[in-house]
Amino acid sequence: MKKKKRDNMETKQNTGEIYRISGPVITAEGLSAKMHDVVKVGNEKLIGEVIQIEDNRIIIQVYEETTGIKPGEPVENTGLPLSVELGPGLLKSIYDGIQRPLPELEKQTGNFIKRGVVVNSLDRNKKWDFVPTVKKGDAIEGGAIIGTVQETETIKHMIMVPPKMKGAIKTIEKGKFKVEDVIAELDGGEKITLMQKWPIRHPRPTKEKMPPEVPLITGMRILDALFPLAKGGTAAIPGPFGAGKTVTQQSLAKYSDAKIVVYIGCGERGNEMTEVLTEFPELEDPKTGKPLMNRTVLIANTSNMPVAAREASVYTGITIAEYFRDMGYDVSLMADSTSRWAESMREISSRLEEMPGEEGYPPYLGSKLAEFYERAGRCVGLNDKIGSVTVIGAVSPPGGDFSEPVTQNTLRIVKVFWALDAKLSSRRHYPSINWLQSYSLYKKTLDPWYDKNVDSKWSELNNEAMKILQEEEKLQELVQLVGSDALPERQQVTLEIARLLREFMLQQNAFHKTDAYCSLDKTKEILNTILWVGQKAYAALDKGVRARDIVAIESRNTISEAKFNEDYKKVLDKAKKNIEAELKKLVEDI
Ligand code: ADP
Ligand code: MG
């Protein structure tokens, strides 16, 4: 009797049927499941994930369009958690939210992606040249690198032992292998392939998280100088539509000193995703002149995927990022935009009839966002390699209002806030990052790195610049009231120095061949020159020259030429000579 009951349960375990359908949320009965099991829903076997378990029913979010499926259709539990495939072939890939390669999907089903299509994430037939770095008899543990594959022209893929394996190498071979071929065997009989799987909701293990003491160098002057981001750190770019979130993230993808880029696109509008899909593969890697895709994994939620897939795409992306981190690489992960993910949480939550929190978002919005951002970090891996995942999330608050829940919850988690400002973008001040609203909580821990590696005066110069910009804000208020001529002379000069800082230091054209990337040395030289002009100008003022003459010297604007010139030192030297001569003449003419 007892045995019979168990048998019943076992047959019961794997399949059941649909009870209710509410958009992407399906209730099924007649099968047992664990949280986050992957299930196949309906006659078409749509991919879904268990998100709630009730007494005798399970609730599933489905990652494919559910229109047309009916109660009574079968639901099958795979018993496995939603996982990604990790191995050679990830780079250059364009995946959907559940890691199905989009080009492959299109090939199989045409432009309109059919449902329930099973496509492998990694190409099963492609052969990779595997070069072992360990030999027979070597003792290895989870995470150990046992060999390499030159995955793209730019990136060597380290083949690692899956985290929980351990033993001595019994066999290992050099040669051409497919991702599922056994390349090594351990004395305990475990077989190692080029590919491994990992459940997306579980962070990959590391030995230790390091403090945020090394910057991610972005090549954007305002970010490197005023609001620096640490490798392994977290940043948010909130801004209204058209303020520059996507351009900024693409600049970071191209120019920052992360080796691997994982770009998750959750498009606001259908055509925006199409833009990413056509533009990204065409981007050139400024460091190598080769396609940026050589070191990129692109994850895109196309508009015909339902909202639930946005969540999967975020976890898929961060897991792939962690995998490359484990190889010892610095990885940057961009999510554009996390607001679309939050909106999908809101929709699913309302279909689950959960008690809504602020503005209808579920009360767990903050903890979900935190779970994602907390997977960032610069870590010592199981193999003792140091790698990092830096997470940069775009947020698109409706109307650019930062007081809304997604922005506010994100700000509680991330350490860097790059506030985009519609007022600046409408003035064509790019990047439209508001320097008074933005902040970086890493500045203190990173300043020592910059002072040591760039210039001992780096942080002093930046603090000085920030002071002038803050003073400008106060003076602008006065100017509105009394006009700039009524300001004391010294402050008229300050306003001009602030203008130089804004236009020649903070403004940067993401589309100009030379200006798009600014080295730390160049940033420092430009900053140094502008502050030097300030000192010279105040000195001239003290000697009796009138402010209106000082702020009108012609050569001051030649500083801007340095932005567009590789030989910036020469340009700045010349500018300084001319400025000095002009000021000297003013003093002589008194
Ligand atoms: P969002 O993603 O916030 O909606 P985008 O990143 O698409 O906005 O930016 C909108 C437009 O603003 C771009 O097409 C570009 O013309 C301009 N822009 C934004 N940032 C820059 C920049 N750093 N340099 C030059 N132009 C920029
Ligand atoms: Mg955008």
Task: Quickly list its features.
590 residues, alpha+beta, Elongation Factor Tu (Ef-tu), domain 3, Rossmann fold, Bovine Mitochondrial F1-ATPase, ATP Synthase Beta Chain, Chain D, domain3, 3 domains, 28 strands, 35% helix, binds adenosine-5'-diphosphate, binds magnesium ion
Shape: globular
Structural class: alpha+beta
- Terminal CA distance reads 111 Å
| Quaternary organization | single chain
Largest sheet: 10 strands, mixed
Low-pLDDT sequence parts: 1-12
- Report the strand count: 28
Helicity level: 25-40%
Rg, Cα atoms, Å = 28 Å
> Looking at CATH, which topology of the largest domain would you report?
Rossmann fold
What fraction of residues sit in β-strands? 15-25%
CATH homologous superfamily classification of the largest domain:
P-loop containing nucleotide triphosphate hydrolases
Shape-level CATH architecture of the largest domain: 3-Layer(aba) Sandwich
Unique ligands? adenosine-5'-diphosphate, magnesium ion
Determine and state the CATH class of the largest domain.
Answer: Alpha Beta
Which whole number gives the mean pLDDT? 93
